[in-house]
């Protein structure tokens, strides 16, 4: 049982900052490091999956949680998901690396990204 002192409530300021962040682009990834230099294997794998899926770079934004401890802790409470990276598509939480991986493997990620119109347009 958690006492109220152990439950850190998300500050209004942090919640608003995250609301704004997930609205920046149709596809938003909260990760450790940057797409060019991921700082953990799960963040790297998530970037690779999004690349393989053909997510349009114009419709993608990544936030490095290592640069902002408030964001790093806050995003976990915002999504009620304990790990990073976290993927949002059109402001909806999709999941972390494990969920992305299984959706990638069963084809549901490709279908969802296509339905949401976030892939590079076919020539």
UniProtKB/TrEMBL annotation:
GO terms for cellular component: mitochondrial matrix. The keyword Nucleotide-binding does not apply. Gene3D superfamilies: Glutaredoxin. It comes from the Eukaryota. Pfam families: Glutaredoxin. GO terms for molecular function: 2 iron, 2 sulfur cluster binding; disulfide oxidoreductase activity; metal ion binding. Residues 27-94 form the Glutaredoxin domain. [2Fe-2S] cluster binds at residue 40. Keywords: 2Fe-2S, Iron, Iron-sulfur, Metal-binding, Redox-active center. One of its GO terms (biological process) is [2Fe-2S] cluster assembly. Belongs to the glutaredoxin family. Monothiol subfamily. This is Monothiol glutaredoxin-5, mitochondrial. It comes from Lophiostoma macrostomum CBS 122681.
């Amino acid at each position: 049982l958690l006492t109220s002192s152990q439950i850190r409530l998300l500050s209004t300021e942090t919640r608003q900052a995250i609301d704004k962040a997930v609205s920046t682009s149709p596809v938003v990834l909260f990760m450790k490091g940057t797409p060019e230099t991921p700082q953990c294997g799960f963040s790297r794998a998530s970037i690779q999956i999004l690349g393989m899926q053909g997510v349009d770079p114009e419709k993608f934004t990544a936030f490095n949680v290592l640069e902002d401890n408030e964001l790093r802790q806050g995003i976990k409470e915002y999504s009620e998901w304990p790990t990073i990276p976290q993927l949002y598509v059109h402001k909806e939480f999709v999941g972390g690396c494990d969920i992305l991986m299984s959706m990638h493997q069963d084809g549901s990620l490709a279908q969802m990204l296509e339905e949401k119109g976030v892939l590079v347009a076919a020539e």
